[in-house]
Amino acid sequence: MDRPPPGSAPRLVPIWLIIGVTILLYGLAIALTGLVRWNHPAPGVAMAQLHADFWWGLFMTALGLFYVLRFWPRKRP
Amino acid sequence: MGSSGTLLTLAPVDYGIIVFYFALVLGLGVYLKRFAATGEDFFMAGHKLTAWIAGLSFISANLSTLETMGWSAMAAQDGMIGAHAYLIGAIPAILFLGVVMMPFYYISRIHSVPGYLKLRFGEASRSLAGISFAVMTIFVCGVGMFSMARVLNLILGWEMQRTIWISSLCVAVYVMLGGLLSAILNEVLQYFLIWLGLLLVPILGLWEVGGWHNLLRDIDQVQPGLTHLWANLGSPKNNPAGMDWFGIVFGQGLAISFGYWCTDFLQVQRVMAAKDLRSAENGTIIGAGLKMLAIIIVTIPGLLGLAVLSKHGIHLVGEGAPELQQHLPGYHSYNDVLPLLMCRYLGPGLLGLGVTAMIAGFMSGMAGNISAFATVWTYDVYRPLIRRQASDSHYVAVGRWSSVIGVLIAIATAYVCFSFDNILQELQVLVLFFIVPLFGTVTLGMLWKRTTPAAGFWGFLIGILAAMGQWIWIHLLPAGAAGGWRFDMGQVYKPHVAEITRYADAGGFSQNTYMSFWALLVTVVAVVLVSLATSPKPDAELKNLVMGLTPRTEVQGPWLQRPIFWAGVLSLVLVGINLYLW
Predict the structure, then answer these.
(1) CB-CB neighbors (< 8 A) of A22 in chain B
(2) Chain A neighbors of B349, CB-CB under 8 A
């Protein structure tokens, strides 16, 4: 999204930041769930021995963190 | 498998993920209201989108849950043929839109595809396209609502009425407040959710079967002949879809695909809202690349359903199969393949993300339809036919209220769909009726300056009637011993199907591809004949609207940033995939 000149219209928060925060929060929730259930996987889930929930949650956390840091609004000069 | 006959059971963390999504989209709508004060902002997102946002939104508007579940179901039922929707059934048309058609749409600074018809052919064509598009969009939205409610009822046991009202009112609020920008931001968010929510299904599935080659081997053991894109399309008798190469190339690849991607305003609106022509063209090309990638989360899960589920006592059958009507244990519809695989591979947390991705896919699909409806209704129906001279703020208010009214009409139409047996068929019938003739008319208008205003109107109308006529024809059945005919939307008359498709046992998808091709052919012939019999517009009035009378707008800059270069790269990739999966 293009940003308007300083001091003119209200400034739109970058969509990538919103997406980053969402992925970060979801990633944390999923990774924590995977950690809590590490020794007690949900019954009936195939390939549970891979602990996909924990690793996928960790991946999402890292991805979300990247977007948040990359697109966090910085002070205007 | 969930309790109480549902496919999935959610844990508290799953509900937390879903509730957060609803709060987020409502919050986004409220936040974006301040950025949607003018008509340009509300209807065209202020023409501020970068190529990536335009491209993600363009493809996300298509990657709805209806789409992912429907094409996964087709892959589970008909095998690799289902992947054509992401290859010849999409990519050539998207590249054509980006490289050939987008300059005309963008340079003429129109708000909608019917707006182009107004400039090229006059008010009558615009009104016909505007009204037919508005009707179609609302109906498609109703189909989406109903499908969402049915799917969530089936897999989670959620009450259908409540699901319809909560989701659709949420959509109404965020589109009414934030307009197209709100719809687009939700589509971009949905794109990430759908990939993050579903990508583990093919990864874990392929892990379980031991890789791609083992998957193909397992499918061949279950049912031979389903692992090829083209090898079994020599005759419709060689594949369960009852499809042949002609239907795929000229029906799906030409008529349906070009109609949908090049003239369905829901799609085109996303890239028309880009900040400049280069972003619009590049956004479209990015969309083509993303569309091809969707095979990973749509077609592969369908194929996994074929290979994996049957080994674990789950049998997939068609919607009308007697096993389903008798509720025999272990039998499920092909349409359930994606939820069944989610249930198999995703535990708590991941399941919440997958279900949220499905809900987001449904809701952003509805929002896309509603925002496109609001634009076309306001600019192509209300302004020219009801109130010509009014302030910009008046039209923004009309756009906001038409969003809400559109949602309410869509709710009312949601239950029209009961008599169809496949989720995707309704959409294709609608594409067939309106979009295919529209593509024939618009393309001839862009590429042939001899096309006249009268031909634009009559060609389009005759095309619509040809499409509807074929559809009615295949549903006309002998009334019985007394003679005569009766119309039954739930059945087809095979001799009539054979007249259109050359194969009496052709399935619904095959019927639609052939009817689309004939509708396009009738449209083109009608436009050409009427053009030759009537007077064209003078060249001066066709500037920037027709090839040859529009200055070359080739995007300059490094070759790595040129749309034509990436269109060439994607074309080569497309050919490579087709050869590999032949």
Answers:
(1) 20, 24, 189, 192-193
(2) 29-30, 33-34, 53, 57
**B204 with A18: Cβ contact below 8 A:** no
Nearest Cα to Cα of residue B349 among B22, B17, B7: B17
| DSSP 8-state class, residue B49 | B
Is the Cβ pair A2, B48 closer than 8 Å?
Answer: yes
Smallest Cα distance from A15 to chain B, Å:
7
Contact B356, B18 (CB under 8 A): yes
Tell me if A1 and B49 make a contact (CB, 8 A cut-off): yes
Q: Which residues of B touch A37 (CB under 8 A)?
A: 347-348
Alpha helices in B377-422 (DSSP H): 383-385, 392-413
User: What are the boundaries of each domain within chain B?
Assistant: 12-418
> Is B348's Cβ below 8 Å from some Cβ in A?
yes
B541, B118 Cβ separation under 8 angstroms = no
Alpha-carbon distance values, B193 to A27, B56, B64, B133 (Å): 11, 12, 12, 29
Nearest residue of B to residue A40, measured between CA atoms: B347
Query: Above 0.90 for ipTM, yes or no?
Result: no
Residue B134 in tokens: 């508005």
The torsion angle over the Cα atoms of residues B440, B442, B447 and B452, rounded to 10 degrees, is: 100
Spell out which residues of chain A touch residue B34, defining contact as CB-CB under 8 Å: 10
**Is the Cβ of B350 closer than 8 Å to some Cβ of chain A?**
yes
Where along chain A do its domains lie?
18-71
What is the DSSP pairing of strand B315-317 with strand B331-333? parallel
Interface of A with B (CB under 8 A): 1-2, 10, 12-13, 15, 18-19, 22-23, 25-26, 29-30, 33-34, 37, 41-42, 44-48, 50, 52-53, 56-57, 60
Superfamily of domain B12-418: Sodium/glucose cotransporter (1.20.1730.10)
Q: What is the pLDDT along chain B (582 residues), one digit of tens a residue?
A: 444 556 677 888 999 999 999 999 899 888 888 888 888 888 877 778 888 999 998 998 888 887 888 889 889 988 899 899 999 999 999 999 998 888 888 887 777 888 888 889 988 888 888 888 888 888 888 888 887 887 788 778 888 888 888 888 888 888 888 888 888 888 899 899 999 999 999 999 999 999 999 999 999 888 888 889 999 888 888 888 788 899 999 999 999 999 989 988 878 888 888 888 888 999 999 999 999 999 999 999 999 998 898 888 888 887 777 887 787 888 888 888 988 899 889 888 999 999 999 888 888 888 888 888 898 899 888 988 888 888 888 998 998 999 999 999 888 877 665 555 454 455 567 777 888 999 999 999 999 989 999 999 999 999 999 999 999 999 888 887 777 888 877 788 889 999 998 888 888 888 889 999 999 999 999 999 999 999 998 888 888 888 877 776 666 678 777 888 999 999 999 999 999 999
3-state SS, B534-555, equals: CCCCCHHHHCCCCCCCCCCCCC
Residues 6+ apart with CB under 8 A from A26: A60, A64, B17, B20, B196, B353
Question: Token pair 């519809």 is at which residue?
Answer: B333
pTM beyond 0.90, yes or no? no
